[in-house]
Amino acid sequence: MLTFGRLKPKFMILGVQKGGTTSLHEYLIQHPCILGPKKKELHFFDSFQPLNIDDYHKNFPFKLVTNKITFESTPRYIYYPNVAKKIYDYNPNMKFIVVLRDPVKRAYSAWNMYKQMGESERMINFFKKNEKKSPKEIFFSLLYRKETFPSFLEMANYELDNELNFDFIEPSIIRRGYYKKQIDTYLEYFNLENFLFIDSSSLKNDTLEVLNTIATFLNISNFKSLDLDLEMKHQRVYSEPLNVKIYDELLLHFQNKNKGLEELVNLKFEWMRNKVSRNV
After folding, report:
1. CA 64, 88, 180, 195: dihedral to nearest 10 degrees?
2. In whole angstroms, what is the distance from residue 169 CA to residue 142 CA?
3. Would you say residue 229 lies in a domain?
C-alpha cells in the first residue's frame, strides 16, 4: 500500500533487553522494503513526559510516495507500565516482534552492561541527572552512589527480597525476565496474531531463516537474495563468568514465573526445559 509523506511505524521490536534487538534492527534495515528511524530506540511510549505525536513522527522517514514501511526498536516497551495501552491508542493494528532470551543469561548480561557503564563518568552523570526527571529510574542511587558496584547476586537478591514493595521501575534485572506477565499485559489490548515471537538462540544460529519468517509476518519479500551483513552487534566482554549455582537458583525462579509461556508463544525454549534440582 502506498504511503504519502511522513511514514508511520507499522511494527515494533518490543524487546527484550539484551536479547539481540540491536542486531535484529540492523538486519531489518538492510531490506529494500524497510526504512529505519533516525535512531534505534525512540523511548516515546515509555516516557513519563507528555506525549507529542508530531515530534514522534519526525523520527521517521519522509517520502513523497512510497510503498516502503518503517518501524522502531525500544526494548523497554515490553517491560514499562502502561506502554501497551499507549501504543494501542496510537495504532490498534500495530505488529510486534519479541525476541526472548534465557532470562538468567539476559539478567547477567544486563548486570554486566550496567557495571561497565559505571566505568564512564559521562554515564554516571547521565543517570544522576535522569533521576531528577524520572524518579522511578534510580540507577544512580542503587548502583552508582556507592564506591563498590553490587555483585550480580547482590543485585538479583535485592529485587527478589523486595518484589512486593517496589516503588521504582529501574534498575531491574529480574523483573524484566517475567516474560509471560509482560506478554499477557499486551494481550489485554492486542490479538496474538499481531505478534511474532523469536527465540534469541534461533536469531543467532539460524539468522536467515528467522529473517524470512519475519518477512512473511510483515508481508514483504524474503531476505534470501540479499547481500546481508549478519554479524551480531553490541556484544560485550564479560568481566567474570556466571556462577553455575547462581544460574540454577535463578533459572528455577524464572521457570516458575514463566509457566505457560511456551504454549502462549508456540515456541520451545531450552531454558524452560533444563532440569534444575528443586533443592538448589
Report:
1. -40
2. 12
3. no
The whole-number mean pLDDT for each consecutive block of 10 residues of the chain, a chain of 280 residues, reads 77 95 95 94 89 93 86 96 96 98 97 94 94 91 92 94 83 96 98 98 95 97 88 78 94 97 97 68
What's the domain count of the chain?
2
CB 35 within 8 A of CB 7: yes
Supply the range of the domain harboring residue 40. 3-101+177-218
Q: Answer whether residue 113 is part of any domain.
A: yes
For residues 123 and 203, state if they share a domain: no
Q: Please count the CA atoms within 13 angstroms of the CA of 92 that sit on its side-chain side.
A: 4
Specify the pairing of strand 69-73 against strand 62-66. Answer: unpaired
Angle at CA of residue 24, ends 134 and 89, nearest 5°: 50
Shared domain for 10 and 89, answered yes or no, is yes
Cα gap 41→142, rounded to integer Å: 24
Answer yes or no: is 85 within a domain.
yes
**CA angle at residue 30 from 29 to 31, to 5 degrees?**
90
Q: Do 253 and 121 fall into the same domain?
A: yes
Residue 108 and residue 93 share a domain? no
* Rounded Cα–Cα distance for residues 39 and 273 (Å): 37
